[in-house]
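STRUCTURE REQUEST FORM
Protein name: Spore coat protein GerQ
Source organism: Psychrobacillus soli
Requested output: structure tokens
Priority: standard
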Amino acid sequence: MVQYYWYPGAFPPQQQQPMTPPAQPPSPGRQEESYIENILRMNRGKLGTFYFTFENNKEWNAKVIQGYVEAAGRDHVIISDPNGKRYLMLMIYLDYVTFDEEINYNL
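Status: completed
Returned output:
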């Protein structure tokens, strides 16, 4: 018969995971947080002027697009101009957006 003996230090101590608080559920009146993509989503279909700048671009370093907000994601925005041309632009290049009408901002 084999006997097993345990003694302190026989096994390495286990690291404990840090305790994280449980996620807070959103409050009833608040649906989305104030991120640019959420604000653009709330203004889908509105005509805006989008200002972009690009570093180290020899062809052009800035671009202005006037068009309608079609969709927005965490890292991109899809804009369609009045002639039907669509642009998929990265948010990292977006400087600001102007609208000629009131924007939806119910946060």
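Reviewer notes: Residues 36-99 form a domain with the SH3 type barrels. fold (CATH 2.30.30.100). The longest helix spans residues 36-42.
Form closed.
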